[in-house]
Amino acid sequence: MVEKAVEHLSEAEARDELASLSRVLSEANKAYHTLDAPEISDAEYDALKRRNAAIEARFPTLKRADSPSDVVGAGVADGFGKVPHRVRMLSLENAFEDSDIDDFVDRIRKYLNHSGPLEFTAEPKIDGLSLSLRYEGGQLVQAATRGDGEVGENVTANARTIRDIPQAIENAPGVLEVRGEVYMSHADFASLNARQAAAGGKTFANPRNAAAGSLRQLDATITAGRPLRFFAYAWGDLSSPLASTQMAAIQRLTDFGFQTNPLTEICDSPASLLTHYRSIEQRRANLGYDIDGVVYKVNDLGLQARLGFRSTTPRWAIAHKFPAELAWTELLDVDIQVGRTGALSPVARLRPVTVGGVVVSNATLHNEDYIAGRDSKGGEIRGGKDIRIGDWVQVYRAGDVIPKVADVDLSRRKDGSQSFDFPKICPECGSPAVREEGDSVRRCTGGLICPAQAVERLKHFVSRSAFDIEGLGAKQVELFFNDADLPVKTPADIFTLAERDAANGLKRLKNRDGFGETSVTKLFAAIEAKRSIPLDRLIFALGIRHVGEVAAQVLARHFSTWEAFEATVGNAQDGNAAWQELLSIDGVGRTMAQSVVAAFQNEQERRAIDDLVQRLRVLPVIWTAAKESPVAGKTVVFTGTLEKMTRAEAKARAEALGAKVAGSVSAKTDLLVAGPGAGSKAKEAARLGVETIDEDAWLALIGDA
């Protein structure tokens, strides 16, 4: 389904799209990393990944447990031995705009509270296959692909055939794990394809595919006949440090006999990073091998250690990718699609055109303002040019899950063309479609009577991160929703399906096309197995606006049981104790709280929830505190200015020690850490008798003084 620009998404729409992105990117990762047969281009993959990251950045509480941002590579293919990485092989955060580099440097300075000189290395990003080489006593003992970042494939015999990889190293640390990229030059790629074609063998789509397919041969003699190269640029497990800076460590790798990229330079500012980026970009066509961007890394390894890692990416590095492509084509029609939250989303139907190696026939038009040539505040975009059926439009792919229409060529506009009249009536159910003040989206008011919304809500309910019922996916949901004999209109209907089927005589499922006794038995067993469901999954599955996976986990961790959660949200009113408890949860704001309360206090919604829950056994979420921690299980609030660490570092440290970090002070707060400038939170803590300490006392308490 086509979605709008990230800046115009509501939380509910973002939640839906993140679920879709998770599925698409998972399949793309498997095709690319495991099968060496990518189904989408690198540019499209980057666009998908960036779209996912942009949505998560704007809606951090919606981040999924299976987020593509937390996935590195893909699993090990059959036929290869598994190699656990002692130090994880991570991917890199991507940047696409110049402003992203300013943000990258600013984030580093803020995280470190560092205002002094700051150096970075900048090197070409090789478009190849990541490889880890382990040396012990100077001898190559093991080579492994990245795999999923935790476990890779044992390709030692294959790696020994690559001429750029030394078999032995003098004066190396006792343990040295060198990491880099296996690639194929343009000239070697052309020669290989010519030989393959002459022999009637398989030809490759591009050098990256050729390199990956060659390295991951089960027969090392085939790899030996392929012209593979290797650039070293990093390291993993070490028995002793290589150097104190990134650049000096790269020089050590060069001294050991590895090929390192001669275009690597030290830069001291965002401006100098961008200057080097432009220089490499200009030389890109003449390098003789594929690159898809420039990688920037903090040069000081001590600062790298302080910055540390997110779940799958280091904070101290970023890949500045080269831009995607543009194309012009004709807008044939505009379709309106209705989502789970009732949002009316316009979809451009295009005359097919190739953009960045991919044929495009659909694009997002975001919303009615975008079509009209204005932003959500009424200001002009595209110089105020509206978009009309029959126009020639510019399609832009970078950063979006699908392309977007970026511009209009008025010189090619047809005589008599009409402005697009955005519907005020839902095309699915005929209910009024209204646009609330402050919302950029027009929504159907039909609610559960709107079949599009009802079906999409059921699809969300059975999705992977919700109830995840095997054999009951999106297609089956549509089938049962429209079934006259066994209709499934609400989530509770799923759990009465077997009972209703048993009373259905000759019309039972097992007697229908597409079903059989075995498949029906498995379906009912899968449904029965989901009667026991963890609290966080249930909250997420309800499809409440503004409540994504992460928010559901936050709520579940706070309340622990369904009874406690239901009692609070069911009784919450603006200003009362239950309402204040909701707002005190770190990560829960007023908008989310209002949405949760509204769902439970809406008579129709509440009836559907109650009907469902009485058929389930909701499992509590148990808070597992860190052992031997003085703050384990305690609720901590930070306020004022912290002088010895950033707020992000303080929160991360507290949670690592088993504490719960809240955003506001309440009667359930155990400890307030107050820095200079503490205001209302300190007063509230004093009123409630909450223990208050300063930053030094906090550091002493947790053993970091």
Key features?
five-stranded antiparallel β-sheet, five-stranded mixed β-sheet, D-amino Acid Aminotransferase, Chain A, domain 1, DNA polymerase, domain 1, 705 residues, 25 helices, alpha+beta
CATH class of the domain at 82-321: Alpha Beta
Q: Major sheet: size, sense and barrel closure? A: 5 strands, mixed
What's the architecture of the domain at 82-321, going by CATH?
A: 2-Layer Sandwich
List the total number of helices.
25
How does the overall form come out from the CA principal axes?
globular
pLDDT under 50 segments (min length 5)?
73-78
Class derived from helix and strand content: alpha+beta
Counted beta strands: 24
Strand order of the largest sheet: 2-11-10-3-9
Overall mean pLDDT stands at 86
Strand content: 15-25%
Which topology of the domain at 82-321 does CATH recognise? D-amino Acid Aminotransferase, Chain A, domain 1
Q: Helix fraction?
A: 25-40%
